[in-house]
Amino acid sequence: HFKLTNVCFGLSMAPPLFSSLSKCVSDVLSGFSYDARLSQPISVYSAPLTLKVSQKKADAPANFEVVHSTTVADAKLETTVTGGGDVNIKATHAKLLSNMKLTASTDLGSAKIESEYTGISDMAVKVVANLPSAKCEGSITKELGKVAGGPLTVGMEVGGNASNGKLTKLGFGALYGHGGYNLAASLTDKGDTLKVGCATSAYSGTVAAEVVYKMSKTSIVGTAGYATTLATGEKLKTTVDSSGTAACSLGLTSGPSSVTLCSSMGIDFGPPKVGVKIERK
Question: How far apart are CA 8 and CA 154, in angstroms?
Answer without folding.
Answer: 13
